[in-house]
Amino acid sequence: MKGSTIPSVAIMPSPLFLWRFKVVLFLLWGLCCCKIGWDSVMRMSVDLRDLFLYEAFLYYNPLLLVALMIWLWGVNLWVFAQSSVNYAKVFDLAQTHLSHREIWRCATWLTLIVPTSMTAYLYLYSHGEVSLAASQPVLLYAILLMILLSPFDMFYLSSRFYFLRTVWRIILPLQAITFPDFFLADIFTSMSKVFSDLERSVCRMVNRQVATIAWFEADSICGSHSVAIPLVLVFPYLWRFFQCLRQYKDTKEKTCLFNALKYSTAIPVIFLSALKYHVYPDQWVGFYRPLWLISSVVNSLYSFYWDIKRDWDLRFVASLHDDFTICSAFHTSILLLLTSFDLHTCSILTRIFMFKNPSIWTNLLYGQNWVFYWVLGSNLVLRCTWTYKLSAHLRHNYLTVFTIAALEILRRWQWVFFRVENEWNKMTAKQNLEMSSDMPSEGDRLLDSSNHTV
Where does it live in the cell (predicted)? Predict the structure, then answer.
């Protein structure tokens, strides 16, 4: 019709193009940060270069580990969404809970902001702007804290409130312990080194020691010999310990006491290590270091046993009895030597990777024997190396400690899959049992039918 207008259609680029463009921008940003940071470090004197790299690493490495944990949590949620595990019901989440895409968006921003601040810190200090350089980590920490505690309806208020409420319940376990409470508390135990470094960083900010060499004295208030280091390291284990005691008070199950004992075995590892700086060298070598090694072995093996026996509820059989079984007699014999498990039924270790829709990940992971070996072997090895990051006397090897802390986060990410699936299996089994108990038996139905008149 003459004079009629055709509605305009917005032209949008394809999602694939946008994703590729974002990846290119991300790589360019990463190259710029690396180039500026490297040039800044090379401008420093050789004597101070390693010291200030260590200081910069201290301020920013805990936030990088937090970003890694958020990225991996997004992967967990993606796998749960593809499989039959209803994680929203497991964690009692509202309908507005964050999806894996929103989790990844948060991780992306944190991954961008933290290295940018670190690059600015190195650049400003190397160019003589010491006061501006010192302000960079302070501003970063302050901004992130304000975002986390902001009462305004922005930055996912409901999710932040859920997280903060759970943290409060962890710190003060005065109520019945729910699955989200001890699940997050378990994750906190894997991030104890993160909390310790955050405390060291805040200590230096409060005492105005950022971008100075005053804190390099080991016996200073923010030095590496401070008693605050083992205290902060032990807090996550104490929180989990008291949660177990609270669970025992509510349920009277003895397994809660054994679980509390597991967390208590981390306490000697932490404090015996810290004693190195407060006893004579011959006392450390002859008495305290052997005790530290023994306590480390006990903690690692006990934790490994509890992971696969209780948290994952893996049970094994000596024969292949169905299509889903991935255990063989050889698997079982090895595990008997390591863990002395009861042999009842075989837990389907890789069922979490049986997605609703066809996927390459299902073909790669579901029902594969190598996953069985990898999960148990890597969990055992990383449980043993885990004690390294709990040891205050090994903190000077900061790159090694960072690597082990990152590996511990990867181990915890792997643990999450099977822990959440185990909880979901328990919930569905309980629901099925309740439904079957509510249904009348065949005899009851026959008796009821005899009362009917035709």
Answer: Membrane
